[in-house]
Amino acid sequence: MNSAPGFPEFEGWILDKHQGKLDPLDVARLNSVLSGQPYPEGLQESLRDIEQMEDVLSAQDLAFWDEHGYVIVRAAVSKEQARATEDAVWEKLGMNPQDPATWYQKAIGKGMMMDFYHHPTLRANRQSKRIQKAFAQLWQTGDLWKTTDRTSFNPPETDNYMHQGTPLHWDMSLEPPFHFGTQGLLYLCDTPAHQGAFSCVPGFHRRLESWLAGLPAGTDPRRVNLQAQVVPIAAEAGDFVIWHHMLPHGSSPNHGTYPRIVQYLNMYPVEFKENMAWR
């Protein structure tokens, strides 16, 4: 009979996923939150460094965010770092970027999503100070927790392969009350609008509540077709897109000649409020 792994096995799994060593500041932070004790000085100093760092998002960027509900952080990581992560994705998939025939030989995962979380380049991207500062500006605090999220691989459509991404959607409940929230992704290769770019309905965060209130009784808001309002968001390798989680969003069919490859990453405070009543 198989037995469930115990705590030592759990500790070993965590260390294995982090190359045998955890960041002492991350450990101290988690212990402080769980115990209710103040952060140690070293951790407080690291958070102050983010808050005192020069702004990444300009006043114009923040105004654009308020109006449209998304913003692009240019050069969030270097092109070399983005390329290193892209190479890691290709290696994980066992595919050749120079041979399109290999892009369709096996399933990627669930749709386009890859269960690929712990490579050193993925962890390095999560440490980007530019990304952390951008999130800190939007949340108005540097005390944010990072997600350990997936990557995705969206190859061009062919006669035998159709877009595997989810339709336009929300990842949040549509049951009020609504709270501020963010989502984000890092482009690992240059991605023009037609190359399966991330897409959203700009500005919808400003009218979601009134739109929901105006729907006929019994309407499932997730089945309403908003496709005519969708805008693809093109960006370069190393650019990071943050969007308000109240925007309907999704990937788009790739009509280019090269895959769209991205890493997902979000940040939020420990007090983040998520509506557990699902609609």
From TrEMBL:
GO molecular function terms attached to this record: 2-oxoglutarate-dependent dioxygenase activity
Keywords: Dioxygenase, Oxidoreductase
Alphabetical list of Pfam families matching this protein: PhyH
Protein name: Phytanoyl-CoA dioxygenase family protein
